[in-house]
Amino acid sequence: VESYVTQEAIAPFEIRSSPGTNYLVKLVDAYSNKDVLRVFVHGGSPVNVKVPLGNYVVKYAAGQTWYGYEHLFGKQTAYSKAETTFGFQKEVTTEGTRINGYTITLYTVHNGNLSTQQIQKHEF
């Protein structure tokens, strides 16, 4: 996990994946388009992290063999982004304060609600 901001990370974010494909997941600020967080996910191993409050676009690179941050998964790297903006927010309810977080799955889920689109390397 690499963070590029100094804000306190308090919102839960879980990433689930299936074995066979690894991922480099990025949270990008929806307004400034600056990277906020980067997480490496080993296929089949769920990752739980805390993220700063904010509105983010989820982008990810996927592949089998990791070649490092410069080459990612080599020429076979597939790049995608979620079509939804994720709002990690603090919410005040009658029961108290609640921090909204998310769980995403990076594999096909029947009746799932995470729509993604392929992007080019330079968009990642």
Distance between the termini: 17 Å
Q: Determine the number of helices (DSSP H or I, runs of at least 4 residues).
A: 0
- As a whole number of angstroms, the C-alpha radius of gyration is 15 Å
Number of strands: 11
In what range is the share of β-strand residues?
Answer: over 45%
Uncertain runs are none
Which class of secondary structure composition applies to the elements? mainly beta
Order of helices and strands: EEEEEEEEEEE
Oligomer designation: single chain
| Most strands sheet | 6 strands, antiparallel
3D shape: globular
Sheet with most strands: strand arrangement: 1-4-3-6-7-11
| Mean of pLDDT | 92
Q: Helix proportion of residues, in percent?
A: under 10%
